[in-house]
Amino acid sequence: MRKWYWGSISIIFLIFSACADGGIEEKSGLEQDMAKYENPDIGALSPRNGGYMDVNLAATPTLAVFNPNGSTIDFELWGDSEFTSLLTSAKKVGKPADITYTPWMPRATLEAGFTYYWRAKPTGGGWSDLYSFTVQNLCDIGGIPWAEYVNEFTTKRACDAIVRQDPNQALGSTDAGGYISNSKPGSGFVSLDWSGALTVEMGKTVRNGPGADIRVFEFVSSEWIEAFAGPSEIGPWHSMGVRFCGDSCDFDLGRTGLNYARYIRIEDLMSPLSVCHATAGADIDAIKAINYTSNSGQCG
Ligand SMILES: [Ca+2]
Ligand SMILES: [Ca+2]
Predict the structure, then answer these.
(1) Which InterPro entries match (predicted)?
(2) How much is the pLDDT for 236?
(3) How many angstroms separate the alpha carbon of residue 219 from the centre of ligand 2?
(4) What's domain 2-136's architecture?
(5) What is the whole-number distance in angstroms between the Cα of residue 174 and the centre of ligand 2?
(6) In the chain, which residues fall in CATH 2.60.120.260?
(7) How far from 156 is each of 32, 65, 70, 194, 283, CA to CA, in Å?
(8) Strand, helix or coil at 179?
(9) Which ligand has the shortest distance to the CA of 209?
(10) Where in the chain are all domains bearing CATH 2.60.40.1220?
(11) What is the share, in percent, of the chain residues with pLDDT greater than 70?
(12) What class does CATH assign to 140-299?
């Protein structure tokens, strides 16, 4: 599996890992500089840096960092940004085999309205930046009724990799356009490619209202996709169903049993072994919240 965010950085990481494996105390100045480049690999996935944790998950919190290299990870969770209040920590947390990130369940009960700080590092490596998140009733958050942040984008094959691999093109309102050819690749959308997946955080938290609650806008052609909803950037994911999606297709949160969801995941359902061509995979222009929350009571 290929991780879009770090296509080149991962290569740098591998080189630096090979030349700096003596532990952090023994690193030269140059190696310490190099260690900075390790950190983008250990980025905050859930909660995203500056993001939210659902208050309904605060008694059993989970944090997760991207970990494409599969290192064991050390974690720290802090009550402040000056490193005076360490709440809990862990060392050598292993990565489950079937995912590209490492989750950690700190033994702490977090409080609504508080902002927490955390960081992570490959065991023996340098610390990441200090990340923050706020424990929040997700139904209180205002924003645009569209996807607002990319949380994760993965592709399995470079069938359509040249010009349509920017997942940010799926954010905000619809804007895809252009004629589709190799020389005129179109704009305003991202190709999931065969079996790719995109996870986004919505600006407004989606709620289960009458009928459909999410509309996915596609471009180029019709493709099979499955949409999921969840309470965090890493789920757990609840399927809203499968569609052969043309210009747009609708999904009903009610099908999941969830009353609300802030995180949406779209998966292309074609086999990664399908024949490659220039428009391979679902092409996502935008994701809209049709029904969304307006008061905290809706997240009960
Ligand atoms: Ca509904
Ligand atoms: Ca777009």
Answers:
(1) Ig-like_fold (IPR013783)
(2) 96
(3) 9
(4) Sandwich (2.60)
(5) 5
(6) 140-299
(7) 33, 20, 17, 7, 15
(8) coil
(9) 1
(10) 2-136
(11) 83
(12) mainly beta
